[in-house]
Amino acid sequence: MSKVKSSAIPHYEILYIIANKYSEDEAKLIETKVNKVLMDRGGKITFNQVWGKKRLIYPIKGFTYGYYFLAEFDLAGSLLAQVDKDLRMMNDVLRHQVVVKKIKTAERIAKDKKIADKIAARGLKEEKAVEDQAKIKAEVKKKIKTEVNLKELDEKLDKILETNDLL
Predict the structure, then answer these.
(1) 65 membership: H or E segment, kind and range
(2) How far apart are CA 74 and CA 54, in angstroms?
(3) β pairing state of 93-100 and 63-74
(4) Could you give the CA distance from residue 105 to residue 102 in angstroms, rounded to a whole number?
(5) What is the residue-level pLDDT of the chain in tens, covering all 167 positions?
(6) CA distances from 87 to 45, 56, 93, 152, 166 (A)
(7) Main-chain dihedrals φ then ψ at residue 11, nearest 5 degrees
(8) Distance, CA of 141 to CA of 62 (rounded, Å)
(9) At a CB cut-off of 8 Å and minimum separation 6, what does 98 contact?
(10) Which residues contact 94 (CB under 8 A, 6 or more apart)?
(11) Whose CA is closest to 69, among 58, 81, 53?
């Protein structure tokens, strides 16, 4: 996504929907307007992505389809409320959502990798434990089966020995 950012300015992600009453070319022009709003307020756009025309889950202002756009930008936190107000005032934008985007540093990525490795190792240990339990169960079943057979043999021998027909 975004490449490099300074730690002093927060990083945000915005997803917004433009009504499908516009053509794709007109939607691109509205995207330019939204980007201009962000830049006029002192924002620096680091990433843009067009998701295209998609069906909405529920109708918004009578529209069942909309053009989805995603952008990442850096902006001082105090100016975010003004950007939000400007976007709410735009009739072309059906809905928008701005969230703080946390960028992973190299340290965080390394820490996440260590955690993932620990989870994978734990998973391997659990798989081995399950295999060991299955082997033990199989051995116990085999032992029980042989014990049952020995008991049956003992009973048969006792019956044979108890009869007087042997002499």
Answers:
(1) strand 63-74
(2) 27
(3) unpaired
(4) 9
(5) 444 444 578 888 999 999 989 888 899 999 999 999 999 888 899 999 999 899 988 888 888 899 999 999 888 888 888 889 988 998 889 999 998 887 767 777 788 888 888 888 887 888 888 888 888 888 887 777 666 677 777 888 788 777 766 55
(6) 16, 19, 7, 85, 105
(7) -110, 130
(8) 67
(9) 12, 13, 14, 80, 83, 84
(10) 16, 17, 18, 19, 60, 61, 63, 66
(11) 53
Q: What is the pLDDT of residue 165?
A: 65
3-class SS letters over 67-122? EEEEEEEECCHHHHHHHHHHHHHCCCEEEEEEEECCCCCHHHHHHHHHHHHHHHHH
pLDDT at 148: 65
> Helix, strand, coil proportions of the chain in percent (round to 5)?
55, 30, 20
**Residue 98: both structure tokens together:** 């701005």
